[in-house]
Specification:
With about 425 residues, the protein is an alpha/beta fold. It has 15 helices and 13 strands. Helix 7 crosses helix 8. The longest helix has 24 residues. It is globular.
């Protein structure tokens, strides 16, 4: 896998709270789909006849030029800057300056805001503003990653502040109605709802949302995902997640399709332990992987890796640390965007040795919420300096993140946030919930 990623990087030319997965308290093939693109097409900058123009958008958002610019930018960075740009930090405070100082001190890509960091709407805006200012003060002209788990239903870290969305199962129910009537109104409603949600999150200063969930649940034996999944039917789940991706893209926020290669079949909770999935590859492809394929074709900019041991892809390692799983995402699923880990503070990986360094080695581009952000930054810096992590690998990761944030900045600049964003989002959420019942 490492060889495959390096080859891809050359071809591209640039190329504890339980919140990364959605809960609080951890330790430390549809009509919507666009045509698939080959691995070679995902990020190649070229000048030959018939080849991609530099202003041509890549399937996951940024243009070829933005990816080239990002690669050139990070090539001149120190190990400290590179290490920071691949970490989304965890912090334990409601003081906006605590988050801002961490971003400034460690050159972080940004932070994840959880319910434990939230007091009220004004304080949330003060936090996102302080982080944005600290990020800009470092000379970075693109926005920081300011993310939040705001799926709806049981996973809503802005509860009482942002609009109340139903669990993502509602989106699946609406899509089921579409499929039963051969209609398309349901998917339009899902796109509308998550566009409104994205605009509302932007009104609070967020640039990322850790949603949608593309997992296909197996029902009551699934202790972690449940109604967070759109459906137990892979095609319904694929259409729903793709529609949500399109809605988020249209709002100018970065979405995160999760939890690859599919957590809905796991019968153990990765917040507490490492689940093992022994599903044969053919079954995995037909069920769990289908919604990810559909979402990637719909333009998913980021995919979150799960803390699951998937024996059909790579036995003995969680997907977040498994080179063959990242290779499968890139080479078989055709994904060229940002691969982000689930929270590195979760029980499945929190006690492992150097999980952040190992995730980057395996192919991760962004490390979400390590148990100790400062210590993790030091570990990544040391690994770069000592050669355990090749500079090429980390530059490849950082350049994807920078390019995606350039896309977010450009797209957000083209889509104005309405003054009544919260009211519009609540109306869209209520419409979605009503249509699902």
């Amino acid at each position: 896998m490492i060889g495959s990623l390096r080859s891809m990087a050359v071809t591209v030319g640039l190329a504890v709270a339980l919140t990364g997965c959605g809960l609080v308290g951890d330790r430390g093939g549809s009509g919507d789909a666009a045509p698939a693109t080959s691995t070679r097409d995902r990020g190649t900058a070229s000048s030959g006849p018939g080849e991609a123009r530099t202003d041509e958008p890549l399937p996951w958002g940024p243009t070829v030029a933005e990816l080239e610019q990002a690669r050139a930018l990070v090539s001149g960075w120190t190990p400290e800057q590179l290490a920071g740009q691949v970490i989304v930090g965890r912090y334990h405070s409601t003081d906006p300056q605590v988050a801002a100082e961490m971003v400034s001190d460690l050159h972080l890509a940004g932070v994840s805001v959880t319910s434990g960091n939230v007091l009220d709407a004004d304080q949330v805006r003060a936090t996102t503003r302080a982080v944005t200012e600290a990020h800009a003060a470092s000379g970075r002209t693109f926005p920081p990653v300011i993310g939040v788990d705001e799926e709806g239903g049981s996973v809503a870290h802005l509860r009482g502040i942002a609009s109340t969305f139903p669990a993502f199962r509602a989106a699946g129910d609406v899509i089921d109605e579409d499929r039963a009537t051969s209609g398309r109104q349901g998917r339009a409603l899902v796109r509308k709802a998550y566009r409104a949600s994205g605009l509302e999150l932007r009104s609070f200063g967020f640039t990322w949302v850790f949603a949608p969930v593309a997992d296909v649940t197996i029902g009551t034996a699934d202790p972690t995902i449940g109604s967070r999944s759109p459906s137990s039917d892979p095609r319904t789940a694929g259409i729903a997640s793709a529609a949500a991706v399109r809605g988020y893209n249209a709002s100018g926020i970065v979405s995160t399709t999760k939890h690859y290669p599919g957590h809905g079949s796991a019968t153990a909770d990765s917040h507490l332990e490492l689940p093992t999935l022994d599903t044969p590859l053919a079954e995995l492809t037909a069920r769990d992987l289908l919604p990810f394929k559909t979402s990637i074709r719909a333009g998913a900019p980021s995919v979150m890796m799960s803390h699951l041991e998937v024996t059909a892809l790579e036995a003995g390692l969680p997907a977040t640390l498994a080179p063959r799983v990242y290779a499968h995402l890139r080479d078989e699923m055709g994904f060229g965007g940002v691969a982000i880990t689930d929270s590195l503070g979760m029980g499945a990986v929190a006690e492992l040795e150097l999980p952040a360094v190992r995730a980057l080695e395996a192919g991760a581009d962004l490390l979400l919420m390590p148990v100790d952000t400062r210590r993790t930054h030091a570990h990544v810096v040391e690994a770069i300096k000592e050669g355990r992590l090749s500079r090429e690998r980390v530059e490849d990761a950082a350049s994807r993140v920078v390019a995606l944030q350039q896309w977010q900045q450009r797209t957000a600049g083209e889509v104005e946030v309405p003054i009544d964003a919260t009211e519009q989002a609540q109306a869209a959420a209520s419409e979605l919930e009503a249509a699902a019942w």
